[in-house]
Amino acid sequence: MPNKRQTRNGYFYFVLEKLPELRRRGLPVSGVRDAVPHCSADWALLSMEEKEKYSEMARQYKADQDAAPKPRITTVQSLQQKTVMTPKSNLSSEVQMTVDHDFPWGTFYFINILSHGELPPHCEQRFLPCEIGSIRYTLSNGILDCFHHFIDPGAIPRGFRFHCQAASDSTHQIPLSGFELASCRYHSLFRDLCTFVNPSLRSCQPIYCKSNEWNRVNWCLDWLATKAGMENKLKLLHVEDLIVEFYQYKIKEEPSKTRIRSLLDVFQWDYSSNTRCKWHEENDVLFCALASCKKIAYCISSALAPLYEIPLSNAHLPLQDSDPHNSMNPKMVVLDAGRFQVGRENFRSTRLYLETSNCFHGSGLELARSAVLVINTRLTVVINDYSVLQAMRFDNRNTRGRVQLCLL
């Protein structure tokens, strides 16, 4: 059945305007299509006059399209891809063209750049870069080298300091200003980055990031190159397409993009040693540009090394995860009620109950080995013998009590 021709309506522009707010709330929305289900209730609350503003945007767009001789993009999905990221079909072919001739044994670079939130579309500066991380990786040898710097984003646009502060507090917690580790030597920083990812001085070096981070990372790279007075010759591609190429090369089959994204979105190595940068490690903050790059490498190593019959080393996975003789193989239960909340909660009223079966003696608990409870913005319970745990209840008036279970 042929696809129905779609056009932009007022609701499209309303959802487009709501995207930054949804992302600040931690929702996984990469574009208008993902955000549509989250905006219907707010759209219904608008008056006819308020909706008319967005309808006028749609009419203006239609008039501009009708005036064009031959519109090249005809669907909302294509428009969204053109606006937000490079088209998927082109990306797949670009990955095939840019990988080394000795694929899959070549060298690959993963990158991420964090920002103090995302500013609305009408702002000239959409992002405020504050941290950059990149790694050099090969499937056979794991992580070879790392690149990491904090970036001085410059002056915060007037009227957006609270917005940026809230975004920082709920994610990476990097200070907006007066941060002694942030560098404003943009020319030196971008030159060092280009040297790191392009040691052979190739004219166009591919570098990879997650598809839902492509828009931010690409904008920040262009911003950094402009600040440095240099040309950005880095070709930013989706790491999901690279992983598809790995599977295609070995088993002649392509996994779905949904499976690839679920492969990358894991919490298993959030607290692994030597994953985050020194500052985020010391401040016990999970959101780190360098850590996100390393976790991409961990995921690829964990999934593909057995397929390619490559022995895992400490460069492929963190020490405690790669050593098969490690005596401690904990099960981790993460009670995460405040990951995306601003500020730290007062956990004095938090009560955690552990109940066991009747086979245990006494009025209290007698765990077979050990139990460690760490209370911070997250509650982490590491229990060596998970079989003794019959039930766990989490009670906190100030939290939503969202429970995540991660079995290592």
TrEMBL record:
GO terms for biological process: cell differentiation; male meiotic nuclear division; negative regulation of DNA-templated transcription; piRNA processing; regulation of miRNA-mediated gene silencing; spermatogenesis. Keywords: Cytoplasm, Developmental protein, Differentiation, DNA-binding, Meiosis, Nucleus, RNA-mediated gene silencing, Spermatogenesis. Residues 2-68 form the HMG box domain. The keyword Cytoplasm applies. It comes from the Eukaryota. GO terms for cellular component: nucleus; P granule. Pfam families: HMG_box_2, Maelstrom. The keyword DNA-binding applies. Residues 123-320 form the Maelstrom domain. One of its GO terms (molecular function) is sequence-specific DNA binding. It is found in: Cytoplasm; Nucleus. InterPro entries: HMG_box_dom, HMG_box_dom_sf, Maelstrom, Protein_maelstrom. PANTHER family: PROTEIN MAELSTROM HOMOLOG (PTHR21358:SF4). Plays a central role during spermatogenesis by repressing transposable elements and preventing their mobilization, which is essential for the germline integrity. Acts via the piRNA metabolic process, which mediates the repression of transposable elements during meiosis by forming complexes composed of piRNAs and Piwi proteins and governs the methylation and subsequent repression of transposons. Its association with piP-bodies suggests a participation in the secondary piRNAs metabolic process. Required for the localization of germ-cell factors to the meiotic nuage. Belongs to the maelstrom family. This is Protein maelstrom homolog.
